[in-house]
């Protein structure tokens, strides 16, 4: 039934049944013609670019029949064969199957069909149904995303905060599968990085139904795969890159190295297709998108530096190549030093003088990683690209030692008098206990959507200074090895002297690291996840190569440092399984012989 009502100068057709989007807004559909009803999008959906569907079942108006009331006398919805949404028994599954009108995926409960009882239909019609119910209740879902903004965003800024909050308030995930996928990936990364928050989700009402972080992240991954159709990669955008990057981080936090590696490769490929590494390709993008893509480039650049410094087996693919890096000034890709609230699609507002924004910390952290490859940038400025070639340095030991010495010198002093007070090593972090037991700054706003600025700066300070010290330690390791390879028997005394000079620098790095870790609360360290623990472990491992005899004071100090760092690592490393980042974690089945795996891999696979 269609109703025609006079509407100013024309005629307005009101549908007797609202589509799913209009039904959520509690309004009737506006159709251009009664003949086209339910065959084309209604006017509201067309205006908002929303997929127009009629999937949610309707119920009969008026009171129920007597037999229906008797059947529904039990007030427990679960007794009707359709569990209450948000409970552990519900376990709603998000089906990627499209409806007959080509609309988005529909929600279905196990055992539910259109021929189910009227009471089940009534339950569906009276309770809001969200695609995120397959993961957790709607309230808990939004709480997890608020935790991302509060704790993780300063370190992994893959969203524009004002736009993301607005999209979340407007329930954009109801009609945008890409945004829905991003939301699932954000939930996965929060659960993976912060075990304490995962524990708190079990006290929520209703609680999270998963018993482990891996189980939760597996659910997020399955839901993401269900959203991908055969044309998923035909249209790409920054959000799809962010989904892949976030899932690689989430899997890494749990020691799922194989899946992390594959998601990282997907993120790198999408980053290259989006030209995140080419500033000239940013033309035509709005101000928000430019800022997001610049941050995305540096997130991938961090992984590139890791692969250059620690990818000893060279099994990982790289986002960049040395030729491009040597011929490009990547500092042009640094994001604007303003917070997201100052960036609009068509303009960027100037920040208040004397203020320090969260993006400042991100920029300084990026410059620290960039300093690991300073000679390449110097070669670009001088026009001598060959000087920075890693292949040439591998053939010329003296050139490699000079390169590493210059890099260590640059890293050692690059933060002196160049960073704002909130990010300095000795900055104070005033904390108090909030209403939910979390350690937060005294100036935090009651609304969790508001930034806990001091706490966020504390997390960034931990990330910045631990990274800075870790990079120096890695360069010392490489310099030590290079000098040992270049020395001969006649140079023994000279080499021993140089090793002891490097040891003094290593000791100083360790003392600074302990100062940073002891000067920050656990709530500031946890958002950094396993990446922080791995960096601390790398510094501690370097202390094992002490050049002094065990009865000397330097050796005794090294032993004390190792014991102290071991205690700290026992708290930082919260992975649910043994992490095999530096070991082969897969099996080449073509190498398996005689039906045996030789302890998990073939004999040729051992490294």
Automatic annotation (TrEMBL):
The chain positions of domain Zn(2)-C6 fungal-type read: 18-54
Organism domain of life:
Eukaryota
Molecular function GO labels: DNA binding; DNA-binding transcription factor activity, RNA polymerase II-specific; zinc ion binding
UniProt-listed PROSITE patterns? ZN2_CY6_FUNGAL_1, ZN2_CY6_FUNGAL_2
* SMART domains (alphabetical): GAL4
Q: Return the annotated region ranges for Disordered.
A: 56-85, 93-112
Give the signal peptide range: none
- Which processes are annotated in GO (biological process)? DNA-templated transcription
SUPFAM superfamilies in the cross-refs: Zn2/Cys6 DNA-binding domain
Q: Which Gene3D superfamilies match?
A: Zn(2)-C6 fungal-type DNA-binding domain (4.10.240.10)
InterPro entries xrefs: Carb_Metab_Trans_Reg (IPR050797), XnlR_reg_dom (IPR007219), Zn2-C6_fun-type_DNA-bd_sf (IPR036864), Zn2Cys6_DnaBD (IPR001138)
What are the protein's UniProt keywords? Answer: Metal-binding, Nucleus
Keyword Nucleus in the entry? The reply is yes
Query: Per its record, how is this protein called by name?
Result: Zn(2)-C6 fungal-type domain-containing protein
Please give the organism.
Pseudomassariella vexata
**Taxonomic lineage from the root:** Eukaryota, Fungi, Dikarya, Ascomycota, Pezizomycotina
């Amino acid at each position: 039934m269609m109703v025609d009502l006079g509407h100013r100068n024309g005629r307005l057709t009101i549908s007797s049944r609202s589509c799913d989007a209009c039904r959520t807004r509690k309004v009737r559909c506006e159709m251009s013609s009664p003949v086209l009803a339910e065959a084309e999008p209604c006017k509201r959906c067309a205006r908002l670019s929303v997929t127009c569907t009629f999937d949610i079942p309707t119920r009969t108006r008026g009171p129920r029949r007597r037999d229906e009331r008797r059947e529904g006398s039990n007030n427990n919805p679960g007794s009707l064969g359709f569990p209450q949404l948000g409970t552990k028994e519900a376990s709603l599954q998000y089906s990627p199957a499209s409806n007959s009108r080509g609309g988005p995926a529909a929600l279905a409960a196990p055992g539910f069909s259109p021929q189910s009882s009227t009471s089940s239909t009534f339950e569906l019609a009276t309770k809001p149904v969200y695609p995120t119910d397959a993961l957790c209740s709607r309230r808990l879902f939004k709480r997890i995303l608020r935790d991302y903004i509060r704790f993780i965003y300063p370190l992994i800024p893959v969203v524009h905060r004002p736009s993301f909050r607005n999209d979340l308030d407007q329930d954009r995930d109801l009609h945008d599968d890409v945004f829905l996928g991003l939301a699932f990936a954000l939930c996965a990364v929060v659960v993976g990085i912060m075990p304490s928050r995962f524990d708190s989700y079990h006290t929520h009402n209703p609680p999270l139904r998963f018993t482990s972080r891996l189980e939760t992240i597996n659910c997020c991954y399955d839901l993401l795969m269900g959203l991908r159709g055969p044309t998923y990669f035909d249209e790409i955008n920054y959000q799809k890159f962010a989904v892949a990057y976030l899932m690689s981080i989430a899997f890494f936090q749990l020691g799922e190295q194989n899946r992390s590696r594959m998601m990282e490769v997907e993120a790198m490929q999408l980053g290259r297709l989006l030209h995140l590494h080419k500033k000239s390709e940013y033309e035509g993008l709005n101000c928000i998108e430019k800022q997001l893509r610049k941050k995305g480039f540096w997130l991938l650049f961090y992984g590139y530096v890791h692969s250059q410094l620690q990818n000893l087996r060279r099994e990982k693919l790289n986002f960049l190549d040395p030729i491009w890096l040597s011929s490009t000034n990547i500092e042009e890709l640094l994001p604007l030093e303003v917070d997201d609230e100052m960036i609009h699609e068509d303009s960027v507002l100037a920040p208040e003088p004397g203020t320090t924004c969260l993006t400042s910390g991100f920029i300084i952290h990026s410059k620290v990683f960039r300093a690991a490859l300073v000679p390449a940038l110097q070669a670009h400025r001088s026009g001598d690209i060959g000087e920075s070639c890693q292949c040439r340095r591998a053939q010329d030991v003296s050139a490699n030692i000079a390169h590493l010495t210059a890099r260590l010198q640059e890293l050692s002093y690059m933060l002196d008098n160049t960073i704002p007070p909130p990010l300095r090593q000795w900055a104070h972090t005033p904390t108090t206990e909030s209403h939910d037991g979390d350690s937060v700054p005294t100036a935090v706003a009651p609304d969790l959507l508001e930034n806990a600025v001091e706490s966020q700066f504390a997390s960034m300070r931990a990330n910045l200074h631990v990274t800075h010290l870790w990079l120096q330690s890695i360069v010392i390791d490489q310099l030590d090895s290079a000098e040992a390879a270049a020395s001969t028997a006649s140079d023994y005394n000279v080499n021993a002297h140089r090793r002891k000079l490097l040891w003094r620098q290593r000791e100083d790095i360790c003392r600074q690291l302990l100062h940073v870790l002891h000067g920050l609360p656990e709530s500031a360290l946890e958002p950094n996840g396993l990446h922080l623990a791995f960096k601390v472990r790398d510094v501690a491992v370097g202390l094992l190569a002490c050049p002094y005899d065990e009865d000397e004071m330097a050796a005794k100090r090294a032993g004390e440092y190792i014991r102290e760092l071991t205690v700290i690592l026992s708290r930082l490393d919260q992975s649910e399984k043994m992490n095999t980042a530096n070991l082969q974690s897969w099996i080449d089945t073509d190498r398996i012989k005689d039906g045996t795996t030789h302890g998990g891999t073939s004999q040729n696979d051992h490294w």
